[in-house]
User: What shape does this take?
Amino acid sequence: MNLCCKAAGLCHSVTMKSKYFQYYNKSLITYHYAYAKNMTANETREQYKVKKQLTEVNIVLVILCTIIILENLLVLLAVFRNKKFHSAMFFFIGNLAFSDLLAGSAYIANIFLSGPKTLELVPVQWFIREGTAFIALAASVFSLLAIAIERFIAITKVKVYGSTKTCRMFLLIGACWVTSILLGGLPILGWNCINNLPDCSTVLPLYSKQYILFVVSIFTLILLSIVILYVKIYLIVRSSRQEATNSQAYALFKTVTIVLGVFIICWLPAFTVLLLDSSCSMQLCPVLSNAHVFFGLATLNSALNPMIYVLRSKDMRREFLRVLCCWGVLQSGRPSERCLVQLKSSSSMEHCTNKFEHQTTPIMQTGTTCV
Assistant: This one.
């Protein structure tokens, strides 16, 4: 209780009430932010009153998120229009694009509900603001793992996704979203630090330090899993005696290097900050006050994913150009419905796809996607 008095300048009587009842307490966020910054409630209110809604960094992040939304919309439209992309590989890519699109949208919403508006929120609104971003970013990360799993299966078995096994693909995609929603929704379900200020995160003052550590551990395990899967993929391709083994193995190794390198570069700073947050105060670790910059860098991964996973496919690149040309034609007065019409036959795509309409062999043998 003394810690509560120190943070707020008075003892908060509602600490004895139910945690869930306090979800609509308008003053609770102020007390938690005051404790995290080692300030009084009045000092915290004054600090947030003078904060700008859109700082220079936030403007850059809004532009980045807009790019994320547009490029992932382009991916989804390309997958929708071209029936050749109605296969397991491209459904996973579409799922990744959708999760990245949501990540960009959630981060924009987070920016506009931050700054001076933060202390105007009630805890349930704050949990939704942060939880939505966590769900979207987690779904993006889980999608990367799902793609790694799918590609490992694709090079080790022939025709895994036949007519009788399509459910396996949808189960994997469904598991990605169920896990992400559960992971992002744990705080609002009760795993938070309301009524327990010493356990509160500095960066996210209503989140428990144990929850932050749990999330970082999960993401670290995902990274290790992706590394292991791609190492196995590379070893399988390298040991293959097929004619195109050398060139395809090199293409795989190059792509895996890009994927893992970008993933680590984008996420490692955010993981490091969150690890510091679970064991260090803002006074001892001033870098925690700039955590939003590191989260912005993590969001950059959602902008780079389409370039890595999609643009390395010649077919997808050509479909991108087809979609872009379609929208360019709109300016000359052509009907807008033209851009939403699916391509129904392989003859309508003969200049942008290879001769194989359906992949029936391991992906590294004939596919044009070399990831």
